[in-house]
Design a protein that fits this description.
This protein is α/β, with parallel strands linked by helices and 413 residues long. Helix content is 31%, strand content 25%. It has a domain of 205 residues: D-Amino Acid Oxidase, subunit A, domain 2 (D-Amino Acid Oxidase, Chain A, domain 2, 2-Layer Sandwich).
Length: 413
């Protein structure tokens, strides 16, 4: 059958891969000129089931409120007059109980762990280059209190199969010698040996090239403007370049998914949460990190990508604004200079801000819409890289009317 995937970020491209693998004739449409040009462009690159905590937690409301007068909070609240913003925030607030946080974390971790297995299967078949590292990730804690709390909290993820070890400062340097000079700044770390890292943008673009060789068609610079409907089916997708008829349509447009879904009678609880990143060239520096990690009490994530370094920080609830100022990156760069002063040329860092398609629960929206040939695979939020492969396989299984390999509680439309 002919399948049409709307969106060429990591979620759309992996969905195209799985549908192509199942024998469908696949076309991918995106308004950008290349794959991974929006949310997937500059994300952290951590493939991290062991960090699949729900953002909607009992601590979140206090953090958001403090961010109104403090700029050092992990979550920033920047209210907008958009009514959709306030509706989404109210739903987010309702998820901020201990019971809901534990449930949403378990569901996220289950999907992320499954996705890691699918990712490995994909790499066996497709051999995609993406500057990946498979030696685990370090979650670093500067205080003993923070480390002890994180070690106890990690039981939520261990129950879902995540392997998470508590290690001391001397063991930190055994995992990554680049931290030797700063190990005394930390009480210890959580080490997740099965977590990984890699360049999501590079993977997405190389996967798109590979898929073209498999017969997948990509139509870039093409904006979806509407749909032709016939009974309980969508007859065609209308774009600014013409119409595209299809038997199967998958909506994977991230923060813009609700705009089109509304025309199709669906209300998707997805709203953008802004994130910031820098990418700096190693440029002959001799001490970049060997593996990725997170400075947890500064909430700065980092990952080495061959000849460059990526660092990310901040989750800002501020609507669709993608602008940024130099001060938005000051803390992030200061932390990276402290940890890896000779890890990259920080003065040459590229600055970027992007929009994560978040649901209040932190889990994606999967399944069929009110039209029989329309499927959703969207809302992966800050874990799009980690969730994408599993969500794509689940979507292909649902299209084929197969039972997915994991429970989909809280994710199906």
């Amino acid at each position: 059958m002919k399948a049409l995937v709307l969106g060429a970020g990591i979620v759309g491209v992996t969905t195209a891969y799985e549908l192509n693998r199942d024998g469908h004739e696949v076309t991918v449409i995106d308004r950008e000129m290349v794959p991974a040009a929006f949310t997937s462009y500059g994300n952290a690159g951590l493939f991290a089931p062991s960090h699949a905590y729900a953002w909607s937690s009992p601590a979140a409301p206090g953090i958001l409120l403090r961010s109104l007068w403090r700029n050092d909070q992990a979550l920033r609240f920047r209210p907008t007059p958009d009514p959709q913003f306030w509706r989404w925030m109210w739903k987010f607030w309702q998820q901020c109980t201990a019971e809901r946080a534990a449930l949403n974390t378990a569901r996220k971790a289950r999907l992320c762990a499954y996705s890691l297995n699918v990712f490995h299967d994909t790499l066996e078949r497709a051999k995609i280059a993406y500057d990946g590292r498979k030696d685990g990730l370090l979650y670093l804690y500067r205080s003993q209190k923070g480390l002890d709390g994180a070690a106890a909290k990690a039981d939520l993820l261990r129950k879902e199969g995540c392997v998470i070890e508590v290690i001391g400062r001397d063991q930190i340097t055994a995992k990554d010698a680049a931290l030797s000079d700063v190990k005394d700044k930390f009480a210890g770390a959580l080490y997740a040996p099965h977590d990984e890292s890699g360049d999501c943008r590079l993977f997405t673009r190389n996967m798109a090239k590979w898929l073209e060789g498999q017969g997948v068609t990509f139509k870039f610079g093409t904006t979806v403007t509407g749909f032709e409907k016939e009974g309980d089916r969508i007859k065609a997708v209308v774009t600014d370049k013409g119409r595209e008829a299809a038997d199967i349509i998958v909506l994977s447009l991230g923060v813009y998914s609700p705009h089109l879904a509304k025309e199709l009678g669906a209300s998707l609880p997805i709203y953008p949460v802004k994130g910031y990143s820098i990418t700096a060239p190693v440029a002959g520096k001799n001490n970049p990190p060997g593996i990725g990690g997170i400075d947890e009490e500064n909430l700065v994530a980092y990952a080495p990508y061959g000849d460059r370094m990526r660092a990310t920080a901040t989750a800002e609830f501020s609507g669709f604004d993608r602008t940024h100022q130099p001060e938005d990156f000051r803390t992030m760069i200061a932390v990276m200079r402290e940890l890896f002063p000779n890890g990259a040329d920080w003065q040459q860092a590229e600055h970027w801000a992007g929009l994560r398609p978040m649901t209040p629960e932190g889990t994606p929206i999967l399944g069929r819409g009110r039209y029989r040939n329309l499927w959703f695979n969207t809302g992966q939020g800050h874990m799009g890289w980690t969730m994408s492969h599993g969500a794509a396989r689940i979507t292909a299984d649902l299209v084929a009317e197969k039972t997915p390999q994991i429970p989909l509680d809280g994710m199906l439309t």
